[in-house]
Task: structure prediction
Amino acid sequence: MLPIDPLDADLVSAWIAMQNAAVAHDMPGDETVSPAHQRLRLLLHPASVAVERYAARVDGLVVGGYELVLFLKDNQHLANLELQVHPEHRRRGVGSALLAHAEARAAAHGRDTVLTGVIDSVDGAAPVDHSGQAFAAARGYKNVDNEIHRRNDLFAVEDDDLARLYVEAWEKAAGYELVQWVNHAPEDLVEGIAAMRARMYTDPPMGEELDIRPAVYDAERVRDEERVRADRGELQLAAAVRHVESGEIAGLTDLLVWPGQEDHAGQNDTIVDPAHRGHRLGTILKIANQRLLRSYRPRLRYVHTWNAEVNSHMIAINEAVGYRPLCRDIDVQKKLA
Result:
């Protein structure tokens, strides 16, 4: 087991190749890892987290690895884990060794909870590899929440249908205005954006045993995340709806495009303040930002998003604008002794 040194070019290349082999085997249709983005992520991360990455190497070959994210401003009980093993080296103890090492590192940082994810197939999509479920369960991880991973094929979306939905939504949204930006939010929106980011930790439906606690978000954290994304070459496309009379940010959404990735983008946050729901603001945000993406990356084809399986309202919005299920992401959690 060895820490991944960003300046060890051979180790980094082998680690990225291992990750892409795992994605291709486990998750057909998902985006592959961008080598450019991974190298930049090794060097740069927000001040609100600490990140550790380790690789497992056998006979000179990188056969697995993990990333451990430790929150520093909030949720200091928690460690987020992503772990991969090369498909050709599974069932040989590599995953078990990686997981034991990751749990020990989490405990050394005073964390008593490890949260990670496994995948499951859904009807109408290509089958995915289910072996992670049994692996996690055998090592004490409990299913605590289910999300559906959806993918939007932008080339299959009918522009006329979106235009109709957009007009109908604005008919319900009198008294609101749309604000959009790229990478750097307008100064008068930052406090409202911080409040919306914090709500992402409390408002979406979550399993009762999922131990995620309220976030500490302020303007400084928003700006720091913007700086890091810009330094990593990420394109952040964002939209907010503002209540004109009060000036309040009523809803927020943003999309991220990684450097070196020409086919896929990822949905980050989408949220509408409960006090402003019922005005089709989620539909407005989604369509407006989808249009902004098409203007910046007209040849980019797929956008990925995740919703709690019970979040019927947001699911209905996503389905209406073109998202279709790809797989089920199961959040699994372990309380360390």
User: Anything to note?
Assistant: The mean pLDDT is 96. Residues 9-26 form the longest helix (18 residues). DSSP finds nine helices and twelve strands in the chain.
